[in-house]
Amino acid sequence: MAAGAARAAHRAAAMARGDAPRDSYHLVGVSFFILGLGTLLPWNFFITAIPYFQGRLAGTNNTAETLGANHTAPEDTFNFNNWVTLLSQLPLLLFTLLNSFLYQCIPEAVRILGSLLFILLLFALTAVLVKVDMSPGPFFSITMASVWFINSFCAVLQGSLFGQLGNMPSTYSTLFLSGQGLAGIFAALAMLLSMASGVDARTAALGYFITPCVGTLLSVLCYLSLPHLEFARYYLARKPPLAQSQELETNAELLESDEKNGIPKSPHKVALTQEIDLEKEPEMEAMEPQKPEKPSIFVVFQKIWLMALCLVLVFTVTLSVFPAITAMVTSSTSPGKWSQFFNPICCFLLFNIMDWLGRSLTSYFLWPTEDSRLLPLLVCLRVLFVPLFMLCHVPKKSRLPILFPQDAYFITFMLLFAISNGYLVSLTMCLAPRQVLPHEREVAGALMTFFLALGLSCGASLSFLFKALL
């Protein structure tokens, strides 16, 4: 790990001295930004279009119910929002465990380009199905299969791209994560434009699903252009022996975004930490002359278990209600323009903007610290969002009353819910590496990656229970 960090620092220093070629017109940076955007488009476009899928599964074809413009949401007889969340997160957990095997057996270019092409093909199928009349049962089965395979390829794609970014200056990881952070906002805006277009429901839905096809095709072109750019060739051709270790280490930064919506924890702090580590490395070696070649997973877990547990709890709470419960909340006002756009704006667009803001706050400060008891307290307090959202204006509830009918309640809850999710996720991912020695950070990153995926899967599973309690 120290050797890998040293190589990265030397490449960055060489670039600063002018020894490396320049990124002409920032084409490589723009390419990785678009690739980051493309990796999270599938998840965000599927969850933002939940009203469309519910309308198709309910057998309705009118503009209001198909595009989410309905005042009372169609009955979710298939538990679509729960299943789409679960089948999106399980592949992430599975491929987190299989990544090392895939990296050894399948060439990098095949993993990246193959994943992009399959994602493009499956999204094209989703767009075609908009115009195909089909009974709810087969439509649900085909859609769920698409969700599973699309997110499986996305998991492989993200890990592979971050493996490449491990050879680039840290600025390009920042651009990649920034692109991921805008994916959710992009999907929400695409839905709003489709609803406001004034065309018939199916045409609007077709335009909505063609958008990620264009985005994925653009990602393919960006990846194919990298070998033709001198700057990219300079870094990507110099793959160090420990590249796989770098892939695992940086994978934690990648998955910090997932879901939805990756924002770099703090590019300035990352660069500063690397410099400090390089300065302290001789001292650490002197203090640990018999440093083990491979750190013990159990020893590393003992150091970061609290951060790992906090990360699991944050995502368990978030995925247990978003979007399974929050997508069911409707406006309490009379039917009109506001009620038509209420959920796309106040649920999806607001969540993604505030989550992005929360993640970016760690670029300026890290509070509370890893030793503070306040951090686990704040994480546990987020459990309160579960009953708060379940008691909002969800029509057709049979077990729980509506205690917060006004729209302002839901908007306030969503603001706090989203910004706390983004900030606490980014904070725990920033603090975990600070609790281990430099040579243990690879294992710490892999462990945090696993627990992040575990939290997402646990939350998606719990959403079925909370939906049944409504």
TrEMBL record:
GO terms for biological process: adenine transport; adenosine transport; guanine transport; hypoxanthine transport; thymine transport. One of its GO terms (cellular component) is basolateral plasma membrane. It is found in: Apical cell membrane; Basolateral cell membrane. The keyword Transmembrane applies. InterPro entries: ENT1/ENT2 (IPR034764), Eqnu_transpt (IPR002259), MFS_trans_sf (IPR036259). The chain crosses the membrane at residues 25-47, 83-102, 109-130, 142-163, 175-199, 205-226, 304-329, 341-362, 374-396, 408-431, 443-466. Keywords: Membrane, Transmembrane, Transmembrane helix, Transport. The keyword Zinc-finger does not apply. It is a multi-pass membrane protein. GO terms for molecular function: uridine transmembrane transporter activity. Its main location: membrane. SUPFAM superfamilies: MFS general substrate transporter (SSF103473). NCBIfam families: 2a57. Belongs to the SLC29A/ENT transporter (TC 2.A.57) family. This is Equilibrative nucleoside transporter 2. It comes from Erinaceus europaeus (Western European hedgehog). The lineage of its organism: Eukaryota, Metazoa, Chordata, Craniata, Vertebrata. The gene is SLC29A2.
